[in-house]
Amino acid sequence: MPLSPPVVKDWTARYDPTAADLNTYIRDTFNFLSSPPKLRVTANVVQSSIPNGVWTTLVMGSVLEDTYTGWTSGTSNKYVAQVPGWYALSLLACVSVPSTFMGRVGFQYQINGVTVGPFEFNQAESGAATSWTWDAYDEVYLGTGDSVMPMVFQSNTAAVSSSLTWPSSLEVTWWSK
Amino acid sequence: MNSIGTLGGYSVPQNSLGGLLTVDYPLGPSQWTAALSWPLRKSSRVYAADLNRQLSQAVAFLSRKPMFQGVQYTAQSIATSTTVPVTLDTEITDPWTMHQISSDTSQVIVPQAADGIWLVQGTVPFAASGVGHYYSSQIQYTPNGGSPTVISGERIQSNGTRVEPDCADLISANAGDTFQICGFHTTGTSVNTWVSTSSTPAVAYNDFASPLMTARWVASSSNVPGGVIHVAVPAGWVNDFTAIAQTVNLTLTAPNPGTWTSLQEATGAQFNSDIRNSVLFLSHVPACRTWANGTIGSIASGGSGSAVTGMQATIDNWSAFNPATNTWTAPISGSYLLYGQVGFPTQASAFTASAYLFCTISGSTFTYNGANAFSATPAGTVMKQLRLTAGDKVQLFGFQNFGSALTPSSQTNTRFFALWQSA
User: Fold this and answer.
1) What is the pTM assigned to this prediction?
2) ipTM
3) Which of residues 52-111 of A touch B (CB under 8 A)?
4) How does DSSP assign A46-78, residue by residue?
């Protein structure tokens, strides 16, 4: 059974701690605080169709670690928080840059289907590189069952493909209650 | 080690904290006694007060570290070529009362008993504006009674629609010091921030963003070179409550508490290992912050980038950075939050810049890129959570394609930090 965020105990006089108490308030507490939920996933195949002007799920096909089994692969492609708390989220998106001018590109999260920021927008250099990257970092509070879905947006005149030059990635770590 | 006699009766001193912990303690490490060694009493008894102070209070803090997150929902005009603190009109979380809605809403004030190393990060989206100029978010750190320091963040260009640069840094701060997230641009005229609202998250635009700032306590500012910390171990007793202590060195490691069994005798050794050492490690996790403040070498145009030289540490609590090689070495295994930024001075035309994390992991090299930055004055950033083994190395690399070699900008424009997150 996965551990939960620590519960603080008020120790009172003449209370005899049991082994269960010490396992809960010492062992489990420090095990959780030193090894909280952690996810690292990365893209391993080219995503061929990222349409213009539509926020699109950024597919992560390779799971590097998922310590609390929160990742759902396939079309869902999302992280579901197994315990409540503040999480550190970091995301990298990499797409192929066409020779034509490319407008704003960015990415965002969806938490339970509701789009939230922040995300990154900047202007790509036209045609000078074969790929362009954006990243973002955020801290968000997730309740148990809340989900995070990495997404990408681009406003080129046509669809673009993701690139594996710098594989897109998503990392999630529980920070605090 | 004397037996502590946990299963024996308790004798509670006058200053017992028993009964106060119905909610988490709002007290920081300076209020703890966690560096003391068990037994804490000549009698070897365990008092409720001791467990509350050394265990519960510390866990309350470490599981809910001081943090603030605020957002701006009313657009603000940002003057050109000026560092403008961004007002944060709405608090997302502020359990330590670091922020006031009724006063200067841009200020986030480090609370009492929360001195230490803070992770400060944020983003400032700008509304549609002119092309060909750079936009940046910045962090302004002001020591209590001192002069502000501006920490420059990502510098990127707009294509006439929107642009959203971010900024992050580790800052060693004391109670009363302030953090602000700021907007900066060079368009020649004022530009509004881009905001959404909490009730109408700009669905029509298929996006949601507003200026946002988060500040989080992450570690004590005390240095523990090589993970070695001094702890006081009882060598004799003046009275039942006061020990004659002898200082010994303790090498911190990630917590590895044991399992307790029924009728097991609670010893000072196990309390020290499981409680004292765990709390000390979690409050002194490895943190390092460097910036380009020495002799900075140039970086060739194109190619795969090269190491930024002239890096010097401003925070390095485990002494993990080697300025001679511009290399940070993971002092202990675990997952780290890594940040790099490489900025370049203004050139005649726009070009692309990037910051890379060049990592040697288990003998193999890996390069991680962040967000490319395109501007005549670009600053690229990378922020990544990466698993490292003790001894793995990370260098900050810079990339640019201006067409000739360029020397990265100095000090806060080019910097790196590493922060242990978890085992």
Assistant:
1) 0.93
2) 0.94
3) 53-55, 64-65, 86, 88, 90, 92, 94, 101, 103-104, 106, 108
4) ----B-TTS-EE----EEEEETT--EE-TTS-E
